């Protein structure tokens, strides 16, 4: 059974919003959920995999980092 893409996207957006506020734990939580769902639906060719991996491993290098300040 496939997970709706909107749930994957919602987690990706939540990770970016939390990253814009510098909340690393919440960033990782939502990015890891997005990665799991994205890989289930799209496999390793999922177009947002790179962005999601960056949010998990080095959120401070993502363009959303502290972008709301």
Give an account of the 3D structure:
- InterPro entries: SET_domain_protein.
- The chain is mainly α and 69 residues long.
- The protein has one domain (5-59).
- The protein contains 3 helices and no strands.
- It has helices at residues 5-20, 24-42, 49-57.
- Helix 1 (5-20) runs antiparallel to helix 2 and helix 2 (24-42) runs antiparallel to helix 3 (49-57).
SSE layout and pairing:
Blueprint: H1 5-20, H2 24-42, H3 49-57
Helix pairs in contact: 1-2, 2-3
InterPro entries: SET_domain_protein
Succession of helices and strands: HHH
Count of β-strands: 0
- Sheet with the most strands, sense and barrel status: none
Helix percentage:
55-70%
Q: Counting H and I runs of at least 4 residues, what is the number of helices?
A: 3
Termini gap: 40 Å
pLDDT below 50 for ≥5 consecutive residues: which ranges? none
Q: How much is the average pLDDT?
A: 94
Q: How many separate domains make up the residues? A: 1
What structural class do you assign from the helix and strand content? mainly alpha
Radius of gyration: 11 Å
Beta content: under 5%
Q: What gross morphology would you assign?
A: elongated
- Tell me which oligomeric state these chains represent: single chain
